[in-house]
Design brief:
The protein is an alpha+beta fold and 380 residues long. It is built from eight helices and 17 strands. Strand 10 and strand 11 form a beta hairpin.
């Protein structure tokens, strides 16, 4: 059987493969309704004071986002955006962002009341930054603040390798299980098919508009892993599971990884996760484990934010190693986020791909885990 269904955050009826997972009642906790931070919360939340937002916006209006093909231009823009962030970002938020580099640090941050462009055009319908977006406030804040954790980079197969990517439904792609679709997008770790050292370590989503109030859900990987029975933890640590490249990658055919593990120890007492929308086992035992963990994910508690719904912009930034995320259905109406990936290993990825600075866009196919159309036995 091919485990290719979406890993829905909630709502599916139990199947005969379901197993009791202690401590997972299966309820989502809307972050915007929670006061403070609970002991079980993966997200640390901040609200920027109005005076800080206005000052940051004023400085950001001075910068112009370059043509994405101008690599040197983006280098200059990034330096300027980081300087603007260093000047305006409150010390507590800066420290929280920087703590994500260290064991025991934050794994997810949600920051509200961030600067937004004074006038926004209609969301893009082709996945490309609108020419009519006359200011670069959102790009300046997004690139500047996420640099406190890592440098921005991208893959050429996704959004043409643009460093700041537009996330909005695209006509003729609305049924895809990708950032261009409208359907529910199940829990996943972005670009899990890429080798861990070249995979995004951080992921930032900047909310510009969200008419249908579509939520983004996040799940703490280590809390989820700790709740699983020992046999399942042991099986998912074996290199017997294959991951499919996301539909957002511009590959002509379905592309799968070589057998790999779902959970991997990081050496500091934690595990990181590889999780694709479509997965399959290399043998019967591995396939059964994927079916069981899929069921567990459907019942796991998660937290939710509704990006782009307030008067100011907002940012959800999280570890792409220790946090899985999903998206609710986008009903009729406009939704527009901007996204960046970050890494502390930019020079290492350049070395792996035979490129040099200021390259920030890489061919994912060069960085995949033993990719092949038939690298993994299809169990049925």
């Amino acid at each position: 059987m091919n485990s290719s269904k979406n890993l829905l955050p909630c709502g599916r009826k139990s199947s005969i493969l379901d197993v009791p997972i202690p401590g997972f009642p299966g309820t989502g906790v809307p972050i915007h309704e929670t006061r403070g931070r609970s002991r079980t919360s993966a997200i640390r939340r901040f609200t920027l004071p109005d005076v800080v937002r206005k000052a940051w916006e004023t400085d950001a209006l001075e910068l112009a986002y370059p043509d994405p093909s101008d690599r040197n231009g983006f280098e200059r823009f990034e330096r300027e955006a980081v300087a603007v962030a260093a000047k305006n970002c409150p010390a507590e938020i800066t420290a929280a962002m920087q703590s994500m580099k260290t064991p025991g640090g934050e794994v997810a941050l949600y920051i509200q009341n961030l600067p937004r462009d004074p006038k926004l055009p209609q969301p893009p319908h082709d996945g490309v930054r609108p020419i009519s977006k006359e200011t670069s406030v959102s790009e300046t804040v997004l690139v500047g603040i996420t640099n406190f954790d890592g440098e921005v980079f991208a893959y050429k197969e996704e959004k043409d390798g643009r460093p700041v990517q537009e996330i909005a439904p695209v006509p003729r792609s609305e049924r895809k299980a990708s950032n261009e679709g409208r359907a529910v997008l199940g829990f996943h770790i972005d670009d899990s098919i890429v080798m861990p050292c070249a995979r995004p370590k951080g992921l930032g989503l900047y909310g510009l508009r969200n008419d249908p109030l579509t939520p983004t859900h996040v799940l703490d990987v280590n809390a989820f892993h700790a709740s699983l029975p020992a046999w399942l933890q042991e099986q998912l640590a074996r290199a017997e599971h294959c991951l499919c490249a996301p539909e957002s990658f511009a590959f002509p055919t379905e592309t799968w990884s070589a057998p790999t593990s779902i959970f991997s120890p990081t050496g500091d007492g934690r595990v990181e996760m590889a999780l694709s929308i479509k997965m399959r086992g290399d043998n019967e035992r591995a396939q059964h484990a994927l079916d069981v963990v899929t069921s567990a994910l459907e019942r796991a508690p998660f937290e939710s934010v509704i990006l782009g719904a307030g008067s100011g912009a907002d940012l959800l930034y999280f570890s792409n190693r220790f946090v899985a995320h999903s998206r609710g259905m986008i009903s009729t109406g406009a939704r527009w986020l901007q996204r960046v990936f970050t890494t502390p290993n930019l020079d290492k990825i350049r070395k792996m791909t035979g490129t040099m600075a200021p390259t920030r866009s890489f061919e994912a196919r060069q960085l995949m885990m033993g990719h092949s159309g038939g690298a993994c036995t299809r169990y049925s």
